[in-house]
Amino acid sequence: MESFFGHMKDEVNFIDCQTIDEVKVRVADYINYYNLERYQWGLKKMTPDEFRGHLLAC
């Protein structure tokens, strides 16, 4: 969890958000990006979604 929030703070720009709804959209978009597109070195260079699938297939 701490790693996720650390990456999100580094990678998402919240400065130009005018409303809480804009922040919610950016957080939701980042969660989708993180789980489906962002490769993780600690997960054998797979996305979290790919790694879960890999574990379930074993």
List descriptors.
elongated; 3 helices; mainly alpha; single chain; 58 residues
Write the layout of secondary structure elements.
Layout: H1 2-11, H2 20-36, H3 48-57
Brief summary of the model shown:
With 58 residues, this protein is mostly helical.
Element-by-element helix/strand order: HHH
> Main sheet, how many strands, which sense, barrel?
none
Percentage beta strand: under 5%
Uncertain segments are none
What Rg is obtained from the alpha carbons, in whole angstroms? 14 Å
Terminal Cα span: 25 Å
Tertiary shape: elongated
Number of H- or I-type helical stretches: 3
Number of DSSP E strands: 0
Round the mean pLDDT to the nearest integer and report it.
Answer: 89
Structural class: mainly alpha
Helix content: 55-70%
